[in-house]
Amino acid sequence: MQITSEQMQMLLETSRFLNSQLELEKLLELVLERAMAVVSAEAGTLWLAEEDGYLAPFVARGPKADDLKGLRLKPGEGLAGQVVAENEPRLIKNVHLDASWAGRFDDATGFVTRSLLCIPLRGRKEVIGCLQLLNKEREQYFTESDLDIVLAFAWQAAISLENSRLYTWQGMLLNSLIRVLASSLDARDPYTHGHSERVSQYSVMIGKGLGFSPEELELLERAALLHDVGKIGIRDNVLLLQRPLSSEEWNIMKMHPEIGTRILADLEPRQLAEGIYEGAMYHQEKFDGSGYPILRG
User: Fold this and answer.
1) What is the pLDDT of residues 186-243, one digit of tens each?
2) Which value, to the nearest 10 degrees, does the dihedral of the CA atoms of residues 76, 79, 84, 89 take?
């Protein structure tokens, strides 16, 4: 395999970027753009397998890329589907000399394919998708050397994508669990049904208006959803009363921020959970100090 010094430098820089990026959407774009750059491809598509086994074009670049939107391939369908199913790369130097080339996409869109590479993206246990690169620039054809370069790039790209997707899924799972918990708490009292979700939505809108970062908005959303978690410790004969609370009952209700803080204080890691339990502790406080709980020094 012959790799130029420029290509080697690009591979090293790409490796560094891949290892530093966990946000899935940005990583998908980065992988495709770098793959296209390293072999001077005119167009490209990054296909990922979805939960039902279908392949979807998560990122596409080049002429007619928009025509791929909404397209899904059945397992084994098309060149991309075959590459994923067989875990074997394909190099078609000149599509017009290859008997297996069908050209359906070209016929449908007017795009003219001359040469292509299709590389499986294999994670730790399975193939998670493939890179499809079309037409080497300056009207040249892809070579065996181009195939070797993309193969060298594809393994690390697949591992990075797998890590990023797992990270994204874990975040989705955490957010859904928090929402389920918040909804369960609200369901105890028909009067407050949907309250935590509404507080969360308003909080995020205010945070955006104040210029919060995406990370700060995510923490704010979670804290708002769980701000009333302490009500789980308030007995029903106080929480569900349909009349104004007595002084004694009101003092019991005022305990829910401290109860919530004690519940959330066990969340780990502490540096990420701190904002969540602070939301539970201080959500009834007021700027003039007249809220509750009354904090003791």
Assistant:
1) 777 777 778 899 999 999 999 999 999 988 999 999 999 999 999 889 898 988 888 8
2) 140
Sequence-separated (6 or more) residues with CB below 8 Å from residue 47:
55, 56, 57, 58, 73, 80, 84, 129, 130, 131, 132
User: pTM of the predicted model, to two decimals?
Assistant: 0.64
Cβ atoms 32, 14 nearer than 8 A: no
User: CA torsion sign, 8 to 13 to 18 to 24?
Assistant: negative
Nearest-10 Cα torsion for 175, 178, 179, 183: 180
Model pLDDT, residue 186? 79
Tell the CATH superfamily of the 5-165 domain: GAF domain (3.30.450.40)
Token digits for 88? 């074997």
| 114 contact partners, CB below 8 Å, separation of at least 6 | 94, 95, 96, 135, 136, 139, 141
Mind listing the pLDDT tens digit for each residue in 115-172? Answer: 999 999 998 888 999 999 999 988 789 999 899 888 888 887 888 888 887 878 888 8
Average of per-residue pLDDT across 82-108: 85
Task: For domain 188-282, give its CATH number from 1.20.1050.90, 1.10.3210.10, 1.10.1060.10, 1.10.3720.10.
Answer: 1.10.3210.10
Query: CA-to-CA distance for 162 and 159, rounded, in angstroms?
Result: 5
Distance CA 200, CA 289 (A): 23
* 5-165 matches 188-282 in fold: no
Spans of all domains in the chain: 5-165, 188-282
Give the E-state strand segments of 152-294 in sequence order.
none
Q: Are 44 and 118 in contact (CB under 8 A)?
A: no
Q: Percent of the chain beyond pLDDT 90?
A: 33
Within 117-230, where are the H helices?
A: 144-187, 195-209, 214-225
Over residues 96-104, the mean pLDDT reads 76
Q: What is the DSSP letter of 91?
A: E
